[in-house]
What we know:
Chain A is an alpha+beta fold. Chain A contains 16 helices and 19 strands. In chain A, strands 7, 8, 9, 11, 15, 16, 18 and 19 form an 8-stranded mixed beta sheet that branches. Chain A has a 7-stranded mixed beta sheet with strand order 1-2-3-4-5-13-12, with helices on both faces. In chain A, strands 6-10 form a two-stranded antiparallel sheet. In chain B, strands 1, 2, 6, 7 and 8 form a 5-stranded antiparallel beta sheet that branches. In chain B, strand 1 (8-11) and strand 2 form a beta hairpin. Chain B is globular, with a radius of gyration of 14 Å. Classes of the chains: A alpha+beta, B alpha+beta.
Amino acid sequence: MQIQKIKDNIYKIPPTDKMRVPGRIYASERLMKHIKNDNAAQQVANVATLPGIVKYSLAMPDIHRGYGFPIGGVAATDTDEGVISPGGVGYDINCGVRLARTNLKYENIKSKVKPLITNIYNNVPTGVGSSDAISKLSHQGLKKLLREGAEWAVKNDFGDKNDLNYIEDRGTLPRAQPDFLSSRALKRGLDQVGTLGSGNHFIEMSKVDKIFDDKVANVFGLHEEQIVLQIHTGSRGLGYQVCDDSIKTALNATHKYSIDLPDKQLACAPLDSDEGRNYLGAMRCAANYAFANRQVISTLVKRALMKSLSTNPRDLGYSTVWDIAHNIAKIEKHRVDGQEKELCVHRKGATRAFGPGQKGLPAKYQKVGQPVLVPGDMGTESYVCVGTEKAMEMSFGSSCHGAGRVMSRNQARKISGSKDIFKELDDRGVVVRSASKKTVAEEMTHAYKDVSEVVQTMHNLGITNKVARLLPMGVIKG
Amino acid sequence: MKDISNKFQIENHTADLGIKIFSESYQAIFIDATQVLYFLMTEYIPKIDNSEFENFQIKGANRELTLHNWLSEVLSLFWSDRVMLYDITPIKVTNTEVQIKARTEQCDFEEMEFKNEIKAVTYHNFEIKEVDNEFRTNIIFDV
């Protein structure tokens, strides 16, 4: 496969064989070396074979090898002629990140990080198969949650109505169809609302270490030395089951509609088909589950902080900056060759990065664009960026979602070897609580690319602009 | 349950968990792959008793999809119903259908030590190859 450098930070995979459009990778030269090493570029080319794909199959600089779609991939398909692929969303539907700010200052908190993190850890169930953060739902209650998303959580006393203004799509994707979910998917969702799960999911307490753009940071309510919290999780077992069930249906649809694909994991169905519509209806349920999950966890975090610090909501000032989905498919309007078109934008490990003036942004962010949250790995910095008009032109309003792995979990564990990772992080001023030591070894810094370079690449391209850098103080891993 | 650590190897995959399973026959893959799947997820080993066998029937368009559908069923039973299978005995195995009887144990997740949260059995590079009278199965699990 040929990869051509077009200009700084932009690479092209010219269309060959069954590719309908070229591939395009946004990466610095150094990041490109990682990308070439792990077969991710081939996956970008494979995605370009999807019927109805528009302009190019895109990859963000944090791209790495997934299954079917690469992680860090973006593909937009025409809603009239194109397809939707459950694998292009992934198993953890609406895995995403929430950022909450507080009135707390680093100076006043730095000596209390350990008890604060421990208290949060004790209040949010973490780890494999975690459950029972809140009372088990009835089937009827779950279906209501699947239709309402984060709004369900607010109605049930988890958070404030104002939080909804600062969640992508106000935390509720419309036209969710709970009746399209299998009984197994529903069963898996009954007791996992408010749980973090395992793997790379986390809760992190950080301090705002540096502001790059005062004006935008001010709009986002961020300032240096401020304490903020990030929550990274998704739709838990319900989402995994929805995806698994849907890929089976999509495999049949691929055969039924004579779609020729290089990888079964790209199985898809025309958007204008029963199979396509049913997946959208089911996927929206899982997305709403994830929005509700992060809303509940965020409230549990807030309560833990209030209790630990014996403070009240006003003094704590805990409020949502933004909540984003980075595994999702959305029906959006974009300009293609000068014409406005309705597209289904698959973001698999990619974040929406809408610029100023876009429909769907809260009034407060209309003039500057939406926050783009880019968490780093456990021991390093994270970034808050802002979407731009260029993102609308260059990436269907999308950006990177994290640092991106460079090595397998198995390799990461081997390299971590006998190191006392908890002590190493402690020495660097990062308190870690985890349900599993193994997860911590898998998620160490050496397993990831340099998040600063990933973010800088998007900044240099003008797709997102840097607003603030966050440094970790305490991390809870699943 | 037999020691199955020598029946598979971990393959490097950047994001997920790739494995290669070595089996004596196509039929044996169904037992080996199920045990490897459990081995990767948990330290727990079912308490063997003489509970009744349950019958399972799974179909697929070819032998890879039949195995894939079987493993997806095992995984869903585990996470959704919290059930583990043991004494897994294939009764009929063809390229497009498998009938298996197995005993089941209802698991208590509170009592179990977990290793990996395997979300799904992916289709990516899912392959059964016969090499020198040995069956090699490549699977990538989403973790």
